[in-house]
Design a protein that fits this description.
alpha+beta, nuclease, five-stranded mixed β-barrel, disordered C terminus, hydrolase, about 750 residues, 17 helices, Ribonuclease R, exonuclease, six-stranded antiparallel beta sheet, globular, NA-bd_OB-fold, OB fold (Dihydrolipoamide Acetyltransferase, E2P)
Length: about 750
């Protein structure tokens, strides 16, 4: 009888022979024949169940490695012209591998969005893990660009509006669509990319005056490919929808549920109510109702509305408009919980004890009628002693019981210790013309936190119910920080004289201790920003990996189905699990949950980038009249080409180009996050307080360019340049003790590694 290899021996073989990973290959390698193959099959099954191997058709591979031949999607070239690609077959844990494409002279030109089949080689370079060589291109999407059309003798050019300063595009005379010089246009690639010269494009839409206020969000919508027009069949389907009646539902119309939203809210999809629990077994406890618009009653699986909602993934919000996931007939009418109007809902009744711990809960499909549509400020004012004619009648019977329940939930929150970042949110206020009137930071009231805690509790209840009923669903996943990001945060904390304990299982309470230690100091903003940067990005998944930031084991999005497709999936899962009707989760959806999760995670990121870019453009427009003014801020990022500064007054981010720092060469240290002058030793690092002058503001790109005047209250020398021989440069004094200590620690660490 041939000895059966150990699990580690099998893993070592697969790692060393990535192209010979079928069960037959493994058996042949270890000389296993006959009945012994049964034991081999058992071991492979165990390795698969333990997550060490992934079965792909008739072969096995390490899930934390890419297959040797893989499908990739090409990304846009970086600043150096290198092409990287996203691996579409990555299913491992941790950070997605970075793949660099190594072109050959015979390869066709590749562009952003191309899908290719490539042969991969694993490497251990600083900026990538794999190198890819093209086998064949298997699909391409015409690349699109939004930019300013500059008319020429034989057509013209398109100057992209990206901050990165992408290459210009040539437009032939017959492909300009009648665009005028200086007009904002959207174009797509025309024909294959040339190896020499500028790429060619055809204009597909004229977007008008780029300086018009309404163009700001329009640029982001087109640049990021956000669908903003509903097809005719979708509108027609929405227009045919009728209000849902009481049949088959629990009557909740006598419960004084109310909505609490921003004063400019465009929809109302959640309502709440609370009262003291009259159960003597739960002294000091509360009953909380959260009712959510029953969007699933109107958006049926496979319908035109459903296909369009899934395509969009979520609503996208801009200062001047919203691009909704659903047409206004639903989002602003039938699915919006308007005051005094019967509306279909899915509600959850939750009981909590005096310390805010959930005792039990139950879901119902009901019909509700909102007692009032209030906004945060007026609710908080009523609790603080100045009710108005809307909140006054509700103060004792509805509002105070809500705050009493919230007080209990705060106790549970303090015990759970979710991540407690203090990062004020910017609010851009526009005038009637769509121009920026002011930039402020949103006020955080207890009314905001109350609704937030109620919604979190309802989301937990939804996840727990579906887990208990063994129903497929989409979880909201937030994994713990990657080790290298955590180490970077630890170094930043040490440079500020603070400590983040090492050698223990990281919990949010450890990060909160760091944030609390920094609170009230000049490093508070730096530590909050650095902690945020260390976090992994949340995403949707049919598998439950928990929510690190909220310190919750089970979490799903349930409370916003008007604006998030993930919540609609959870609603359908609840409908199926409770047997409430035929509009629940379908077998096709269950089979495609992984695909849906990936898609809506991508659309969420797309919306975030579009919203951020729009904010940047509004801020640039707002600051364009203050070019030449001085501002205070803090270094928020370091790159090879310069330093980013976040301005105190507006929260805007601007760039100090490295070329503006003088004639000496600056060494970029990505690990330490510094730029250091070769001659003077001037060190620029994240977190330093600075004074800058605004030298350029470009609203169409959102770019701000700054001149560095002082660092940590030490002035920069006028004119730049090298220090005089034999004399210490004044710029050298700018390097603070904090940054010197950081450099010393880095040198010592590298010495120990050698």
């Amino acid at each position: 009888m041939k000895r059966i290899p150990t699990k580690q021996e099998i893993l070592d073989w697969i790692s060393a022979n990535p192209t010979l990973t079928s069960k037959r290959d493994i058996a042949k390698a270890f000389g296993i024949k006959g009945a012994d193959r049964i034991d081999l099959k058992r071991i492979l099954k165990e390795l698969e169940a333990e997550g060490h191997l992934e079965k792909r058709k008739r072969s096995y591979r390490d899930p934390d490695r890419l297959p040797p031949v893989s499908v990739l999607q090409v990304k846009a070239p970086n600043a150096d012209g290198d092409l990287f690609a996203r691996p579409l077959e990555w299913h491992g844990e941790g950070i997605e591998p970075i793949v660099l494409i190594i072109p050959r002279a015979s390869d066709p030109a590749l562009g952003e969005g191309d899908r290719i089949l490539a042969r991969l080689t694993q490497v251990h370079e600083e900026d990538h893990n794999y190198e890819a060589r093209l086998i064949r291109r298997i699909g391409a999407n015409p690349r699109r660009v939004v930019g300013i059309f500059r008319k020429g003798a034989e057509g013209g050019r398109i100057v992209p509006i990206d901050k990165a300063g992408s290459t210009e595009w040539l437009v032939a005379e017959g492909a300009a669509l009648g665009a005028k010089d200086g007009e904002l246009v959207e174009a797509e690639q025309a024909g294959p990319k040339n190896r020499m010269g500028l790429p060619r494009a055809r204009i597909v839409e004229r977007l008008g005056d780029p300086s018009a206020p309404k163009a700001v969000s329009l640029i982001a919508i087109h640049q990021h490919g956000i669908p903003d027009d509903f097809p005719d069949d979708v509108i027609a389907e929405a227009d045919r929808a009728k209000p849902v009646g009481l049949k088959g539902r629990e009557d909740l119309r006598d419960i004084p549920l109310l909505t609490i939203d921003p004063s400019d809210a465009r929809d109302h999809d959640d309502a709440c109510y609370a009262h003291a629990d009259d159960d003597p077994k739960n002294p000091g406890g509360h009953v909380i109702w959260v009712a959510i618009a029953d969007v699933a009653a109107y958006v049926r699986p496979g319908s035109a509305l459903d296909r369009e909602a899934r395509k969009r993934g979520n609503s996208t919000y801009f200062p001047d408009r919203v691009v909704p996931m659903l047409p206004d007939r639903l989002s602003g009418d039938l699915c919006s919980l308007h005051e005094g109007v019967p509306r279909a809902c899915i509600a959850v009744r939750m009981r909590i004890d005096a310390n805010g711990n959930k005792i039990d809960h139950r879901f119902v499909r009901g019909l509700m009628r909102s007692a009032a549509s209030l906004h945060y400020a007026e609710v908080q004012a009523a609790i603080d002693g100045t009710p108005n004619d809307r909140t006054g009648p509700l103060l004792e019977s509805v509002l105070k019981p809500l705050y009493a329940a919230y007080s209990a939930l705060k106790t549970a929150r303090n015990e759970r210790q979710p991540l407690d970042l203090d990062l004020p949110e910017r609010k851009i206020v526009l005038n009637d013309k769509g121009e920026v009137e002011s930039v402020a930071f949103r006020e955080r009231l207890d009314a905001h936190r109350l609704i937030e805690e109620f919604m979190i509790l309802a989301n937990v209840a939804a996840a727990e119910t579906l887990i208990a009923k063994r129903s497929p669903l989409l979880f909201r996943v937030h994994e713990e920080p990657a080790p290298e990001k955590l180490e970077s945060l630890r170094e930043t904390a040490q440079a500020a004289g603070l400590n983040l304990a090492k050698g223990q299982v990281l919990q949010t309470r450890h990060l909160n201790a760091l944030l609390n230690a920094a609170a009230g100091t000049e490093d508070a903003e730096l530590i909050n920003l650095s902690t945020l940067r260390s976090m992994a990005q949340a995403y949707y998944s049919p598998e439950n990996f928990g929510h690190f930031g909220l310190a919750l084991r089970n979490y799903a999005h349930f409370t916003s189905p008007i604006r998030r497709y993930a919540d609609l999936i959870v609603h359908r899962a609840l409908i199926s699990a409770h047997g409430w009707g035929k509009d629940g989760l379908t077998a096709d959806e269950i089979e495609r949950l992984e695909e849906i999760a990936t898609h809506i995670s991508d659309t969420e990121r797309r919306s975030m980038m579009a919203e951020r870019d729009t904010t940047d453009r509004y801020l640039a427009a707002y600051l364009s009249e203050r070019v030449g003014n001085e501002f205070t801020g803090r270094i928020s990022g370091i790159a090879r080409f310069g330093a980013f500064v976040k301005l105190d007054e507006t929260g805007a981010d601007g760039l100090v180009p490295v070329r503006s720092l003088g004639r000496e060469f600056f060494h970029f240290d990505a690990e330490a996050g510094t730029l250091m002058g070769a001659d003077t030793g001037l060190t620029i690092a994240i977190g330093q307080r600075v004074t800058v002058r605004l030298t350029e503001a470009t609203p169409v790109t959102g770019g701000l360019e700054l001149e560095l005047l002082s660092i940590d209250d030490q002035p920069m020398p006028r004119g730049g340049g090298r220090g005089k021989p034999g004399r210490p440069s004044r710029r050298k004094a700018v390097s603070t003790k904090r940054n010197k200590d950081k450099i010393k620690r880095k040198v010592e660490r590298k010495r120990r590694q050698r």
